[in-house]
Amino acid sequence: MAINKNSNGYTFAFAIIMVVVVGTLLAVASQGLKSRQDKNTSDKKMINILGAINVEASRDNAQEMFNKYVVESKIISGEDLSAPAFDVDIKKEFRDKSLTILDRNYPLYICEKEGNRYYVIPVVGTGLWGPIWGFVAIDSDYKTIYGATFDHKGETPGLGAEIKQSSYSDQYAGEVVADYSGAFIPIIVVKDGSGKGMNSKVDGITGGTITSKGVEEMTTRTLGVYVNYFNSLNN
Question: Which of 28, 107, 145, 160 could cross-link to 155 by cystine, CB 3.0-4.6 Å?
Fold first, then answer.
């Protein structure tokens, strides 16, 4: 029986077949690329962790450099302290509103460089247009910030996106997150230019107030948990 290619039935059948074929091809391609995507995500995370201790790495040597400088990783608070710290998706946990601050997993990366030990803390929050995140390295005194890196998903170029630049993140180096008694000191983002110097302040980004305040919120919310942990090590 001849097929009437001008009929509605033929058109619908052809469309359905094309959707199935294209969908199958896309699914196969996505699955085939997943391992590469996962590796790129893992490499980027390693690069950012190392960046907090001022170690440069690339996708080509991320794993090698990570293994060289990160001597230990752990979860300091959460439901399963024995789980691999690197596998914790803090962005996903932050979006899960059913989790309280204390229910979330808090990974810690212990690094050694040139005979010194640093404690790298991941932070995550919300900017103007979407997620922001970063890593903050604390010196061996458990109080002084050694370095920091921040990143974003969709902040405005030239404005909020500037949190990614060293001109912003370098302000955190030398600031302290705890006083002599161990009490937590938040790092406040200001827009009056008074952030210069070691005074628990950093200058916000001109035109990027909401993103800058997002960094303040996520560092305050997260670093306080780690300061409590560090205090427990001293007791």
Answer: 160
